[in-house]
């Protein structure tokens, strides 16, 4: 059955199953934020054929990823989610099952963080389009910004990069990865289809702040690529950065899919890993990585203006990183 | 010049001109809401060819209308706007000028209420698509809901209905309205292209509440039609309604465009007038309409279950109103 057979009321009735009862029925949803918290708001639009396709992304993964991208933006600011709105443009011939699966995926990702869908809109469109706005809260003195890094701070990542891109390659090319086990393949594909927003890190950050209320943490997420994140933080903060390639965490299975140079390209420019890239004083960073499995300090900020990647076994080759290979929408 | 020539960075630079400086640059925007206020969140998606077309709506009007629809949803809950996010899907061959005009229209509508664009996303799409989320605040005890009307309350409208639909007819058919003055024609077309969200009414409501803190006001906006709004409020509140056709405010110029029966249809089902339909105790409604030029009490809620329209010079004919002619998206 297609959604044009269901009609607007039928479609809304289906979608309402995924929303808490108390928010449905008025022109807008009502939320009660915690006192003395700042609101953080982020929005994303995903278009069929551009951001997702049936070939690599089943509807349930489209739903998961679209929510994950927005929650990752909240995590990148240090904010906890309060709720999301979902605006959907749907082709009339879209199977009802696709829409149900889309909401299942969104709900699964949201349920991890007890976050409700608080509102939405559905309309007909020549192309399936999803627009999500996420709202979160954060204590004003604990907002993570791109622009507040200082020289000689540690640059850390919350986890490995390149996995999402490797997973995409595996999904696009069935012959790839013959030497990988099924579990390794699945794990990389899972990274691409069901990336985790790193909201799980926030409690560790809160502990740091509880012991040092004046601590400043700069950062952003790596959704547009690790290199892009480092360059953006450096530029916004007016600092340079030196990153050591051999400290970048990544799974060895990547080297069974592509030559080392390609793997480094995936790690730096692959994007969509949704990890956090944070800058903070070195001693605090050392404390923090102990509480976040898979995280690593990958370099330091400098008083220079360039973002430099040190490669080679003795970190004796320098490459200047730029944003230019980052994700461009037009 | 088309947006594909401008590239993502160029496009973002252009769009940022319309956003306050302090909200641009991080993964998400930060807002500081007033303490003890509830948040109200609403979202809408508009798709080219479905919700707007170049024939009846220049880009500046598309921008204005898309903002107006969202601000109207806030007004309908009694909430004042805090900010909006804008997600845009754009065809590569869209003229840059069209996008600029779109933002001009949004900014003009927003500036009336000192409301900023606090965030957004732009991506490529086979069809121009606009998704707006508006965030507002309201004192928790002053939220206007659909479900809180009581029997024997007055039903009032904040202004005339049918004008937007009449304006659309004039835009679609140049030969129509030969007996109308240019000013009358322009006024109706303006109603269609630049509808006003009725946020201007909120101060009058606050005055009522200041003198009677326990006052409950039920209501919603009439974006999907006046009949739809009355039926929705009645059903959500479990009351009936009796509306007198001769009390419905509308301009006489409508009768020069269409026979009386068609005019009544435009008034009841035309939609997109973005007025408020409010239910409150009769004495309070009498007070309120004195402060809102063009508003009128059009009927009363009842203990019946039906929404009845009384027509004829002596209001002696009864028609049962339903939602069924309301705007359907699929």
From TrEMBL, chains A, B:
Residues at which substrate binds: 51, 272, 327
One GO BP: thiamine diphosphate biosynthetic process
Positions with a binding annotation for ATP: 103, 120-121, 146, 223
InterPro entries named among the record's database cross-references: PurM-like_C_sf, PurM-like_N, PurM-like_N_sf, ThiL-like
Binding site for Mg(2+) 3: 27, 73, 221
PurM-like N-terminal domain sequence ranges: 25-138
Positions bound to Mg(2+) 2: 44, 73
Residues the record lists as binding Mg(2+) 1: 43-44, 121
EC numbers for this chain: 2.7.4.16
Keyword Metal-binding: yes
Catalysed reactions, as listed in the record: thiamine phosphate + ATP = thiamine diphosphate + ADP
Residues that bind Mg(2+) 4: 27, 42, 73
GO molecular function, one term: thiamine-phosphate kinase activity
Family: Belongs to the thiamine-monophosphate kinase family.
Reported function: Catalyzes the ATP-dependent phosphorylation of thiamine-monophosphate (TMP) to form thiamine-pyrophosphate (TPP), the active form of vitamin B1.
HAMAP family for the chain: TMP_kinase (MF_02128)
Miscellaneous note of the record: Reaction mechanism of ThiL seems to utilize a direct, inline transfer of the gamma-phosphate of ATP to TMP rather than a phosphorylated enzyme intermediate.
Protein name: Thiamine-monophosphate kinase
Lineage: Bacteria, Bacillati, Cyanobacteriota, Cyanophyceae, Oscillatoriophycideae
